[in-house]
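Service request form, structural biology core

Requester: graduate student, group of Dr. S.
Request type: structure prediction, single chain
Budget code: on file
Notes: please return the result as structure tokens.

Sequence provided:
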Amino acid sequence: MANAIAHPAMGSVYMKLCGPVISSDVWDASVRLEAMAVPAAAMLLGAAPEVTWADLVRAGSIHVHGPGSESLDQPECPTLVRDFGDSIVRCRSNGSATSAVYALHAQPNPLRTPSALYFAFVQQWVRQALLCVHGALLRIDGVGILALGRRGAGKSILCASAGSIGGAIVTDDLLLLGRHESTFAGERCRTFLSLRQSWATNELVPDDGQWRLGRSGNRAYFRIPENDPDFPAWTRIDRFWILERPRGERRETSSASRMTKVEAYASLVSASHPLLLNADLPFERQQVMTLIGDLVTKIPAARVVTGQDIITSSAKAWRRLLEANS
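Core staff response, request fulfilled:
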């Protein structure tokens, strides 16, 4: 696995892979890959063990599109072209996208999904009113919680703590947000969890090797078991938390406080891909702004700082946080 890309851009055992197509279990939405052999696409999307960087170079251009995108590919449409250093993308606003890895592109270390292919997926999902964000999503005591925060803010600890007292973990990494019935829901995009290694997660997650994929840097990867109620593919979102890193040593007691809609809006923008707001993608930019505006209007937001009690007295700490943000 050392020479393989173990972290697929999009692809979940809960997202149906039918040829090179991904479709959501929650929304009537899908993304298709063209000009790529089905076995290679399956590997890239996580349905097979691995795909190497050389496989991606040999694949050439990969065409990524969603429903109706090709009919909107008109020459006069605004077009974004961006070379990320490891790959290049070309996409039309509200149209399709093409990504490619060439021999001249630098192979990232550690290996990861090419940036251009990742962005092509993100663009195609947002065309369908689904926003891809980095964050954690879990459900505890019937309450669905979306938690965002900068690196090291405590997303992994929050998920591990919830799981230790019977909560359900959707993801701690990458998810799709979208309208669902009268509110919002989130669905995971990957088949694994990537918990940041620390004394807290080591305390909360047993290292029994049952579903561990391996380690990369300071993160441990865990394969999500199929059809396990402790790891649902999606959940309704009832609360929106912004996790903040404690200043200095982690305090003893966790706390939650109200935050303004402006602060919540800015946090969601930061958690999404910045290129979606590029002037060359006016349709996608409007989609992002509308989705985020609706979410912060409907879902109560709070600023949360986790303390040592989230590890040492998890049930009590969770009751306090949920009551403070009710």
